[in-house]
């Protein structure tokens, strides 16, 4: 039995439109599939956990980065790795995980990959009690994701660009204490901090070129405090992939990191937003998820 978890709202309704395509494809190839559509937050996590416990032949996730984050959280609930393979049909507004992984966007190619059985094993990051497959972030970029939510219906994939402009004019740097487990603590004001397994976020910005999804390491991008004017230039520089040369940006590779903000903040995990107060613990889970690849 294959279990398919669909976010019907993903991609401005694209997720729902793909259901009959998936049903027809799997039926044509003689496969039995159970399809569930998410309604509430964490439905995908609940169903993914249940599918793993039931011995599912494969889970197929249909949606954007946020849907995938919930599915992986369910698959890794109470464990450091999951043997149930995961197929992914990306149809979100950002689809940054697909870019980081190098997967094609074509639906039939994604489904064919599930049936062909070629698998790549990748790392995941434990973020407190959640799981992250691509990137977690706090600061300006998390604010951009938050402000982009109501804009997606109007601007689609351009929502992040519009939100970036709005968010920068509201931006305030955040005070953080960062412990990378090497006995040193970095304290100061930051524009943003990204804790990365993949390379892309924000609808196509390659924030961490050094990151690899299967090296057993977290790649952390620290952006020191910037004025609003300088922050306005940051994302165009990121889009041009010139930001790695900026003095305000540095990278750290580690297996665990604790980020402690002063006061409540918004944590973004693969596009999903969570309110947080107190330390945030991130730990690498090597070779945690088996993913079908084309």
Q: How much β-strand is present in the residues? A: 35-45%
What would the average pLDDT be, to the nearest integer? Answer: 92
Our measurement of the CA-to-CA distance between the termini, rounded to an integer number of angstroms, reads 21 Å
- Principal-axis shape equals globular
CATH topology of the largest domain: Tumour Suppressor Smad4
| Secondary structural class | alpha+beta
The main β sheet shows up as: 15 strands, mixed
What count of structural domains?
Answer: 2
Number of helices: 10
Regions with pLDDT < 50 over 5+ consecutive residues? none
CATH architecture annotation name of the largest domain:
Sandwich
Q: Give the SSE string.
A: EHHEHEHEHHEEEHHHEEEEEHEEEEE
Question: Over the alpha carbons, how many angstroms does the gyration radius reach?
Answer: 19 Å
Helix content: 25-40%
Please give the CATH class of the largest domain.
Mainly Beta
Number of strands: 17
Sum up the structure in keywords:
10 helices, Tumour Suppressor Smad4, Rossmann fold, 32% helix, 36% strand, alpha+beta, 15-stranded mixed β-sheet, 2 domains, 294 residues
